[in-house]
Design brief:
The protein is mostly helical. It contains 23 helices and no strands. The protein has one domain. The radius of gyration is 22 Å and the shape is globular. It is a multi-pass membrane protein.
Amino acid sequence: MLSFFAILALLALFMAMRMPIAFAMGLAGFVGLAAQLGLRPALAVLERTFYDSSSSFILVAIPLFILMAEVLTAGDVTRRAISACQAWIGHVKGGLAMATVGASVILAALVGSSTASTAAMAASAFPQMRSHSYSQRLAAAVVSVGGTLAVVVPPSIVLVVYGVLTETSIGKLFIAGILPGLLTATGLAVVIKLIAHTTDQAPKGDPFVFRHAVKSSRHVLPMVALMALVIGAIYGGIASPSEAAALGVMGSVLIVLAQRSLSFADFNRSVSGAIRATVMIVAIVACSAIFSNYLAFTRITHALLEFVASTEMSRTTIMAIIIVTLLIMGMFMDQLAILSLAMPLAFPTAMALDFDPVWFGIVVTKTVEIGLLTPPLGLNAYVAAAQTGVPLGKIFRGLLPFLAMELVVLLLLLFLPQITLWLPGLMLQ
């Protein structure tokens, strides 16, 4: 019989061969099940698990939120959001960079994908900052770190996947992510302001013109209203996340049609992009369930929980171990891969220690968000480097003060759970 460590080695081998994480986990889990149960029972478990995990109704929210993001992105949302934010605060030192953060919040609430947000900001905001003599290092770092807001700010796809994997309320996760997302954005703005006043990396932008600022906001207000409507429907208990996502798709289509900013070809590309992204995410969820079933049959999770119950380590120490492990994983893997690999063991451990599942989800999401900025992988830094042409090493150096701020926010979320749990506690059931 193959041991658990042999299956882990097989999983590591598949990943080293650059096999997609979904297939690597599914295949390794199936091999383990076949070794534990025999081929025919393993095939039966495979069939049942794949169907049960991929037919969950809550998964409907994933393609709908992605389609909403694709439609709005194709409808020139990014450029208009950046223009509006720059018109209001671009005239102060560091204003263009802070406007990029503000636009990143709007984009995060509409897109839900970190890499997509980073790519959009790198294409739109980076040239604007460079044209106003911002340093390459700061401009590229700002678009990289701004993109990470899409991981925490609802409707985050990462939060949806966490909710599906752990059977945690996605509605509560969305509402819980609002204050941490705004806290992160505020922290980014503070760091930018400090850099602007202590260096010459962020000079002033164009003079403020009230009429221009109002005019540039005209096309953005419907999108902000749509964002408030989607999140408000979930918060007020009027709609489930899936129903709110459907409302968001309808609203986004109406907005781009009214603004005449989306062609039929663009809409086709949006649907195709949503389908591709959805297939990838559902494959990760289903294959993660196969691997989780293997762990259940080996009783590894049970053994780990018994160890946690018998150890003399405190809850804080065990949580610190989980966080450090996730941070290290973030240096080498993307956020969905981390969730699919870590949650089958980390989530039961956290629940055994009586941590709140919603709070734990936001903390985990914040932790994997930091991984998007840390070398050697630092996925957002790679996306920004590819889009802007700025050397990767220069971007990572520019990210250092922002990483320090991100760690401060993570510590605040760890030691002040009410930042996360206050709004969900007020939700109408």
